[in-house]
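Support case: user asked for a sample of complex input and structure output to validate their parser. Sending the pair below.
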Amino acid sequence: MKLTVNGKSHDIEVEGDMPLLWVLRDELQLMGTKYGCGIAQCGACTVHLNGLAVRSCQVPASAADGMSITTIEGLGQPEALHAVQVAWIEHQVAQCGYCQGGQIMAASSFLQFKPNPSDEDIDRAMSANLCRCGTYPKIREAVKTAAAKLRGEV
Amino acid sequence: MKRLIHILLLSWPGLIGAAELAIPDAPEPGSVSTAAGLNHWARIYEVASHPRCVNCHVGDSPYPMWSGPSFEKTQRHGMNVHAGASRIGAESLLCSTCHRQQNSDEPHGAPGAKDVWRLAPVEAAWFGKGSDVICQQLRDPARNGNRTFQQIASHLGHDVILHWAWNPGGKRQPAPHSLADHVADILAWGAAGMPCPGDVTTATEEVSDD
C-alpha cells in the first residue's frame, strides 16, 4: 500500500489490519506518535489523516492507503515551527512530554475549524487527550495563544 | 463547516462499497390487521428503545449516552464529548476522530462503522421515551425526514450506520431480532396503517366515554 507521510511517499508491505500507529513507529521509525492505550481513550497517538485528527491506533493501515498523513514530525520544522508548537514552547506546556505530540496534533486540527475558540470550546476539543502530568491549564492557554497567532494577532 | 464535511467525506473510504440491504416489497396495503400491525410495532419498539439505538438518539441533547449492559450506570459519553449542532462533533472534536470504520474488539474500545459516526437527527428523540412517543414520531413525516414507511425501510437499507446496531462488536449486546426482520416489521407495520399504541388507548377511551 502507498502512504504519503509528512509529504513523502512510502510503499509499505504490512498486514492490512496493522494499526497505522505501528506503521508509523515500527515501519517508518517515526517515534513522535506515542502508544498510550490502544483503544482511543487517551489521544497520545493522534495524527492527521487528510488534514483531520484521528487516533492512529484505530486506523488500520488498509484504511490509510492512498491518504496523506501528518505526524508531529511533519507538522512544523525546527526552523519553521507550526503556530501551535510555538505557543507550546512559549507557555512551557510539557512536563514529561509523552502526551504532548498528540495534544499538539489535536489542537492544530481543531484550530483549522475553530479559529477563535472559547475556553469551553477548547475544553471540549481537548478533553479526550489525557495528560497524566495535569498540564491542562497550560494547554488551554497555549491553544488560545496559538489561535491568536494563526489569526495574525500576535 | 461545509469545507470540514467535504474533507471528512474525502477521508472516509468506507463510504464507498459499504454493503446495503435490499429491501423487499411491502405487503399489500390493508393486508395486515391493526392488531397484527401493533404486534409488529412492539417488535420495532424493542429495537428503537435498545441501547444500541437510543444512545445516539438523544433528541436536542448534544451528548451521546452510555447506557445498557456494557456500562455500570447510565451516563453521558465520557471525555466531555459534545456532538454540537453539526451532530458529528465538528465544532470541537469530530466523532470520527475515534469512531472509525471498524469495531474495536478490545474492552472499552471504540466502535465504528463504514459510515460517518454521528448522532441521530434532533427530532428522532428516542432516549428515555415510551413506545407511543417514538411511534408517533416515526409515522409523522414532519419529524421522520418526510418519509413514507417504505422510505423508512429504505433508510434502514442504505444508511449503513444503522446496520451497526446489529453488529456492535466486542461484547456489546446487539439490537434484538435482525436488520432484515426489523425491515420486515417496518413494512408490515406500514401496511397496517402505521398504528401506534396510543391509537388503541384513545379509541377505547372514546368508546368508554360514550
